[in-house]
Specification:
Layout: H1 2-22, E1 23-26, E2 30-36, E3 45-46, E4 50-53, E5 60-66, E6 70-73, E7 77-80, E8 86-97, H2 100-107, H3 114-132, H4 141-144, H5 154-167, H6 176-179, E9 181-192, H7 195-266, H8 268-285, H9 324-333
Antiparallel strand pairs: 1-4, 2-3, 2-5, 6-8, 7-8, 8-9
Helix pairs in contact: 3-5
Length: about 325
């Protein structure tokens, strides 16, 4: 009985060991390279997720790679801009394993583990990225750093570095595609300016602000001059209309008063008498007490002596009333 139990346990152990060495799992985010005696053929890559069979080691072995994006930070690198300004750039690269077979063939000599292959790939990527950073020299300092974010050409520089990074090759003439690597994006995370460059940048920014301020002031003055000109034209137009309207009213008044002036000029004594009576009626109707000398025009009609000595049909003559001859002369002069 004891021997049977030991035999069963030994069998289970051997089966567990064989299942561990003869089966492997591929996740949804992984790709596996199956090698036979250390060599991988065209059909050695497994992309489908699940459990797969293999022969025990050392006949066959499996290397799995994570195909998700990986971030490779880059250390500070000193570069010169197109206007010979020195800047220190720090960036990053996002990349992933696109062709597991090529990736395995290029970096399998770095070690047996996938982590060793990643480390070797990152070393190659750093060398390519370092050479691509030389493209910073195609832009001036004022093109990379502006007061308005939409005016900066940093995004253009990042795209140019990415294109150059993808096309760059090593000493053997191999590009990223030959390594089985796909570069997804390149970014500049930090730019450090030397003290002399910082002062030059601040001076350039100040100069641009001064130019912008002068342009804004010039535009404001031009707009103010245009507004003032329009206001003056409107004022002249309104004044001309008012003067023309006043002349029309004055002409209408003179035309309408001409018959009355002609009638009054025909008999000036009667005209003065009627005006005095109108004045007296207005004064009395207000029931006011006013002490005035009778020498004032109109007030002499209130004197008791005003109508004495007049014959029937005769009108009193006011002290300031014009005679017929004076009225005719006045009318003739008009």
């Amino acid at each position: 009985m004891r021997k049977t139990l030991i035999l069963i346990l030994a069998t289970l152990f051997v089966l567990a060991l064989l299942s561990f060495t003869m089966f492997y799992t591929v996740r949804f985010t992984e790709a596996a390279v199956l090698t036979t005696f250390g060599k991988a053929g065209e059909n050695a890559v497994k992309h489908e997720a699940g459990i797969n069979f293999k022969l025990p080691y050392p006949i066959q072995s499996v290397t799995t790679y994570d195909t998700r994006l990986r971030v490779l930070p880059m250390k500070l690198e000193t570069q010169l801009t197109a206007d010979s300004r020195q800047i220190t750039v720090e960036g990053f690269v996002t990349w992933r394993v696109k062709d597991p077979l090529k990736f395995f063939q290029r970096f399998s000599n770095a070690g047996e583990r996938a982590e060793d292959h990643y480390a070797a790939a990152q070393t190659a990527l750093q060398a390519n990225f370092r050479s691509s950073l030389g493209l910073v020299g195609r832009y001036r300092m004022d093109e990379l750093f502006t007061e308005k974010p939409e005016g900066s050409k940093l995004p253009n520089l990042e795209q140019l570095i990415l294109d150059g990074f993808r096309q760059a090759s090593d000493k053997s003439g191999l590009s990223l595609a030959d390594y089985g690597i796909e570069a997804s994006s390149v970014g500049i995370s930090r730019v450090v300016l030397p003290e002399s460059t910082t002062a030059a940048v601040f001076e350039a920014m100040k100069s641009r602000r001064d130019v912008y301020a002068k342009e804004t002031q010039s535009q404001g003055e031009a707009q103010a001059a245009a507004i003032k000109s329009r206001a003056e034209q409107d004022a002249k137009r309104i004044l001309a209309f008012a003067e023309r309207r006043a002349a029309e009213i004055r002409e209408l008044g003179e035309r309408e008063s001409a018959p009355f002036l002609a009638q009054m000029s025909a008999n000036p004594e009667l005209a003065v008498f009627l005006k005095q009576m109108e004045f007296v009626g207005t004064l009395v109707s207000k029931r006011t007490t006013v002490v005035l000398p009778t020498s004032l025009p109109g007030v002499d009609a209130l004197s008791p002596e005003y109508l004495k000595g007049l014959k029937p049909g005769q009108l009193p003559v006011a002290p300031f009333a014009p005679t017929k001859d004076e009225a005719s002369k006045t009318g003739g002069s008009k």
